[in-house]
Amino acid sequence: GLKFTVAIDGPAAAGKGTISKAVAAHFGFAHLDTGLLYRAVGAKVLNGMDALKAAQTLEPVDLDSDDLRNPDVAQAASRVAVNSDVRTALVAFQRQFAARVGGAVLDGRDIGTVICVDADVKLFVTASSSKRAQRRMDELNAKGMGLTFAAVLEDVEARDKRDSERATAPLKPADDAVMLDTTDLTADAAIARAISLVAVAR
Ligand code: C5P
């Protein structure tokens, strides 16, 4: 197949992961959750490593740990993500992934605006912050975490604020992104909408 890139951006827990995985599976594309890169760097910083050093030496195996899903790692990720040198260190890996033959879906905050400005399809996935916190709480508590709604909402809103207000690659829709508000959509409905947008572009 040919090179085909789908960029999926949006705030925390809007449904990017669910949609990205389903689009990738449907079309046989590879999927990269770019948040994992920042989470892996954040986790290393929590373990005492320098952020830039962590970004420059990141390896695929670093993306495998289950602990990367924890809210404290998410916060650390959003703090290291403000650092433009850290971001620069992670660009080549993401662009190489996007350039692979056979198609790729990348999800994150700056895929449509910075990493893959020429993506074939750009989606910006949103939902109300309370819906997003509810979904993220259900997801994490299904893994036995026992988090309160208030704690998850605080995490989501703090990250959105930091991600949107930073100087480098802030969270915002690309001018040519299609907006997808999942507040009142089931996962299946959101997936169907995303698949049809990709199908049209293909
Ligand atoms: O997507 P996820 O919530 O796992 O991302 C964790 C954090 O990593 C985000 O809050 C954001 O600060 C950062 N991030 C980013 N750019 C990306 C992906 C994630 O700045 N492309």
UniProtKB/TrEMBL annotation:
EC number, as in UniProt: 2.7.4.25
EC class: transferase
Highest taxon above the source species: Bacteria
Coiled-coil zones: none
Name recorded for this polypeptide: Cytidylate kinase
Keywords, alphabetical: ATP-binding, Cytoplasm, Kinase, Nucleotide-binding, Transferase
Keyword rRNA processing included in the entry's annotation: no
Keyword flag Cytoplasm: yes
GO-annotated molecular function: ATP binding; CMP kinase activity; dCMP kinase activity
Organism: Octadecabacter arcticus 238
